[in-house]
Design a protein that fits this description.
single chain; about 160 residues; mainly beta; Jelly Rolls; four-stranded antiparallel β-sheet
């Protein structure tokens, strides 16, 4: 008998992407989702850049709940935003919601025990609608790596 490396069931999103199912009921399914990392390159600290994560194809008829989810941007001097650029529903097509984290040299901060942003080194926003798919983008607000910040540090956007 073959041993499974992951004891949790998975939801196949397409031929290449799967999401681990953490909890399931008649009302909802909770999955482990992805992040959109933005790392400072050791040899390329100059220049604005951004990272993008796209959830495709659409998960219709399923959607991400706007009451159960939020977008959290983690890092200093970054912006994070979420948009639904693939929707067939014209009332929510191309919406954008986002947040900005400015640290002013105060350093990095981690999320509290409730996975909420403390306000320093992170920001958060809500999903304004239930979404079948979305793009998450994270970008630098400054032209270079902040002074005193290790080139190995990363920022991230996590739905």
């Amino acid at each position: 008998m073959q041993q499974l490396s992951n004891p949790h069931p998975v939801l196949r999103l397409d031929q290449k992407k799967e999401a681990e199912v953490l909890d399931m009921s008649l009302e909802h399914v909770r999955i482990r989702d992805w992040t959109s990392p933005l790392c400072y390159a050791k040899n390329a600290l100059e220049g604005k850049s951004y990272s993008q994560f796209t959830l495709a194809p659409p998960m219709e008829p399923f959607s991400y709940s706007h009451t159960e989810n939020k977008l959290i941007g983690i890092g200093c001097d970054i912006f994070a935003y979420i948009g639904d650029f693939h929707s067939t529903n014209s009332s929510i097509k191309n919406f954008i919601s986002g947040c900005v984290s400015v640290c002013n040299g105060q350093g990095w901060s981690w999320l509290d025990t409730n996975y909420s942003c403390s306000g320093i080194g992170c920001c958060q926003t809500t999903f304004p609608y239930d979404l079948p798919n979305f793009d998450v983008r994270v970008g630098n607000m400054s032209d270079s790596c902040p002074i005193g910040v290790s080139a190995d540090l990363c920022s991230a956007g996590a739905p």
